[in-house]
Amino acid sequence: xxxxxxxxxxxxxxxxxxxxxxxxxxxxxxxxxxxxxxxxxxxxxxxxxxxxxxxxxxxxxxxxxxxxxxxxxxxxxxxxxxxxxxxxxxxxxxxxxxxxxxxxxxxxxxxxxxxxxxxxxxxxxxxxxxxxxxxxxxxxxxxxxxxxxxxxxxxxxxxxxxxxxxxxxxxxxxxxxxxxxxxxxxxxxxxxxxxxxxxxxxxxxxxxxxxxxxxxxxxxxxxxxxxxxxxxx
Length: 233
Prior knowledge:
The protein folds into two domains: 27-179, Glucose Oxidase, domain 1 (3-Layer(bba) Sandwich), CATH 3.50.30.40; 186-231, no CATH class. By secondary structure, the chain is α/β, with parallel strands linked by helices. Helix 1 packs parallel to helix 6 (184-206). The model has no long low-confidence stretch (mean pLDDT 96). It has helices at 3-9, 14-23, 72-77, 100-108, 123-129, 184-206, 219-231, and strands at 35-36, 44-55, 84-88, 113-116, 133-135, 147-152, 156-158, 161-163, 168-172, 175-179. A hairpin with a 2-residue loop joins strand 7 and strand 8 (161-163). The protein is built from seven helices and ten strands.
């Protein structure tokens, strides 16, 4: 993925991205559950680094497991610069999968953000770490109270979406969306054009133009838009 494509995607809303993917028949791209812990941040883009939890297995999900080679700690040390960590926590609301120290380490490793359909713990410390987080809430108990961590960089489900390693994640105040790797170029360029059209629509609405025939456009609106667009070149 080129930096130029990521730069384009940073200007395309997650709402527009869902519309572009709908054109390709993809409806399950917005993750149900993850919301920004801090609203109003910049739109973030990065390749997915996946983490997977399964239901709690009491013989495996213990405090001692945090020192295992298969642990969230080990997964964090495997994260490359710039990734967005996406954790499948099965929507469990009573087990905080990451806390302040783990988030601080991810921030130090230049991870772009963390997304999960589960919850966080140590809220004040997580906020202090400055790691951007999209999650479904907060809870005091640790992950091993309700989940077992089993691995990373494999296909997962998060918020009702299938996420494969290397898919592209886009985050803003509307939530988290996943773009299949093969569709990133299409979504970026078509999405940017869609955003430009909508900016023109706003100017037309301000003039009092009625929506039918404008949004979506009929042939007459397309012609007027093409003229406006050419005048900007």
